[in-house]
């Protein structure tokens, strides 16, 4: 067992969180992760309000364990109304991506929900904690989906130094197994928030071709592109991302570029295996640089258990590297 401030705060067994991935983290995946002792999080950014309510009910029907819901703060829509539905739906955590959710922090706290913010920079993390967020996810540029420029290894310890004395910090971006969990703990994080690895599971929702492409891709076959939303998003490289790399003058800011990619039939996030008209050479398949490590679909609950068992083995092994010797016995100068 690995116990941290995160497992205590979330009231879960394992410090492994499923990222609230739009288009992917629906009730089957969320329930499987929570039921296995991790923390499942619905990716509601691509759901209608009605669908989000149904999905929360489906999670509750499948497990009594805690779960969260993730929304993108920058998306147009009624954030307060959405958060009220999340509260009624029985989630214990609200996760905000793309911006600090200042106006709903008090509302969540008044109903006993924790507020989590996704952060790509130290300054974001400071603002989130100043606004009352209960934990932050430090997401490095390696991550799939919307992402910044600072890599996980330098980002996590800097966020830990900035806010780790006030809230737990969770590491994200490029973490695909227990070695990543052990490394995150070594960097001072209290757990991990995992996206790409959980797409390659039978429970994940995915468009036609998505999981096959993930399993076939190497670590250098993702690209940060503004082709799909107008904001920087790490996706699998294809003819559509290449086109906009060659024609950057055609890129429009968010949300105009999102309208363009939808109009081009290049972005069907929120669809499923039955969605028609998906062309892998055009489609936006978000994926992180960890993609090259994916070999097969693995049930989500099994993944949670493997993360923990592998991390325990790594931590036990690395502890053995420490030996009493001249350096250890010398007083620090
Ligand atoms: C398919 C996909 C969709 C995502 N959608 C969202 C989202 O709607 N909201 C959000 O906060 N983060 C989103 N992300 C980012 C994840 O929350 C997470 O930070 C990221 O996947 C972690 O990096 P990894 O993919 O290397 O594990 C998405 C990521 C992927 C791969």
From TrEMBL:
Q: Name one GO molecular function term.
A: oxidoreductase activity
Judging by the UniProt lineage, the source's domain of life is Bacteria
Matching entries from Gene3D superfamilies are given as: Aldolase class I
The answer to keyword Transport applying to this record is: no
Q: Which CDD domains match?
A: NPD_like
Q: Which InterPro entries match?
A: Aldolase_TIM, NMO
Pfam families from the UniProt entry: NMO
| EC number(s) reported in the record | 1.13.12.-
- The residue stretches assigned to a coiled coil in this entry are none
**Keywords, A to Z?**
Flavoprotein, FMN, Oxidoreductase
Region: Disordered, residue numbers: 267-288
This protein's name: NAD(P)H-dependent flavin oxidoreductase
Organism of origin is Aciditerrimonas ferrireducens
Question: Highest lineage ranks of the organism?
Answer: Bacteria, Bacillati, Actinomycetota, Acidimicrobiia, Acidimicrobiales
